[in-house]
Design brief:
By secondary structure, the protein is mainly alpha-helical. Helix content is 77%, strand content 0%. The chain has a single domain, classed as Growth Hormone, Chain: A, CATH 1.20.1250.20. It contains 17 helices and no strands.
Length: 406
């Protein structure tokens, strides 16, 4: 990144808050999905499908509330919305940890999802504004997003053993609130300031027809990729819990085994986002995006037939390739969207990618409850990957221009 002027937020500071904010945004759902087989099914007295359904409203609001957050980020203040994001998300997680009934938990998970929805449209648009090598920066930011499920899984498993399941929400919620207070203090002191100027040179103009075409294709791909991601989130902890049977007996070693395996999958897979982002800087985004969806098809098909250690290894590549497409997706949106509408369009993206695609949670729970296994869960997700690949073939062709080093 280039050096900051006196009236700009220092780029490294902005990058730091943007990255840690991305991690926080992906904590509340993975913590929940890890708690489901380890504690909540017994605590709430519900089936697997009924328990995972408690987060559906929160997941939906995580996506559906994003356009409002993006519009406010464009019209009011990106840094102001980031402060609201930190404080509101942390408070929602604290209240989730205090929930007494399934309804209470569903309500506070909904509140948490509502405030967490601010990050993606506002934080990503803010990051795009301060970056030069956009794909690489978005890929690095994506790694921090993948740290959310990893940290959430390990944190949930450890806190269940030491302090009980409530601490899995209370402790990180308090940390996020403190981060928000520090962020607000830096705004008040003028260290973090609002900026409407891109550091990256503007892209060449594109036609309205190509822009509409790209948006229509992205609706299909984001829905497909989002369903795969949302369905995989609850599927992996449950599948690992079934394969590593200590959990079924309530063994502490089994609880931590599942947590560590989920963390291993998401941390290792996160590296793929840097690779995907870097490839988007070097090659046409259309080709990189298509490759990400094509590779998912055989991986998901194989996951429907494997278990145990082989499933763990396969899950690393499966989740990694799914997330590798995300920085490419954000590059395409930035390329075809004017800067003054970028946060709004990113918000609309997450209506599809998280809001509507949160049905993937219902899909996973319903198929598992109906079939008693994961064969048809992963087979169905392979079909969504094929649908996404077919849609990408309709994207307009482009040539990638070399980008300056940051």
């Amino acid at each position: 990144m280039s050096a900051a002027t006196p009236m700009e937020t220092p780029p490294r500071l902005a990058m730091g808050f943007a990255c840690i904010g991305h991690t926080y945004s992906h904590l509340f759902a993975p913590i929940f999905f890890t708690l489901v087989p380890l504690a909540l099914e017994r605590e709430m007295g519900l089936s697997h499908g009924e328990t995972v359904s408690l987060i559906v409203v929160g997941n939906a609001l995580f996506g559906f509330a994003a356009p409002l957050a993006g519009w406010l980020g464009d019209k009011w203040s990106a840094v102001g919305m980031m402060a609201v994001y930190f404080l509101g998300t942390g408070a929602g997680m604290i209240m989730t940890g205090l929930a007494e009934t399934p309804l209470d938990m569903a309500i506070w998970l909904g509140v948490t999802g509502f405030f967490a929805s601010i990050y993606h449209p506002v934080g990503i648009a803010w990051l795009v504004r301060i970056s030069v090598n956009m794909g690489t920066v978005l890929g690095i930011n994506g790694v921090f997003g993948n740290l959310g499920p990893a940290i959430g899984a390990v944190l949930a498993g450890w806190l269940i053993q030491v302090h009980g399941w409530r601490a899995a929400y209370l402790a990180p919620g308090a940390v996020i609130v403190v981060t928000g207070l520090v962020f607000a203090f830096l705004i008040a002191r003028g260290v973090i300031v609002e900026s409407k100027r891109d550091r990256r040179p503007p892209p060449p103009p594109v036609s309205r027809a190509d822009t509409l075409r790209v948006y229509l294709v992205l609706i299909v791909t984001m829905m497909s990729g989002g369903i795969i991601f949302n369905a995989t989130n609850p599927a992996l902890p449950k599948a690992f819990a079934l394969d590593f049977s200590d959990v079924g007996a309530g063994g502490a070693s089994g609880v931590m085994t599942v947590s560590y395996l989920v963390a291993l999958v998401y941390v290792t897979a996160g590296v793929m986002q840097v690779i995907g982002g870097r490839l988007a800087d070097l090659y046409p985004a259309r080709q990189v995006y298509l490759l990400a969806y094509l590779i998912q098809i055989p991986l998901l098909a194989a996951a429907s037939m494997l278990g145990g250690g082989l499933l763990v290894v396969l899950a690393i590549f499966m989740v990694g390739v799914n997330t590798a497409g995300l920085p490419v997706e954000n590059v395409l949106i930035a390329r075809y969207t004017p800067p003054h509408r970028r946060a709004l369009i990113y918000g609309l993206k997450f209506v599809v990618a998280i809001g509507f695609a949160s049905l993937g949670v219902y899909l996973e729970g319903a198929i598992y409850d109906f079939t008693g296994g994961f064969f048809w869960v992963f087979a169905t997700l392979a079909g969504f990957a094929a649908l996404g690949a077919g849609a990408i073939l309709m994207l307009p062709r482009e040539r990638a221009a070399p980008q300056p080093a940051e």
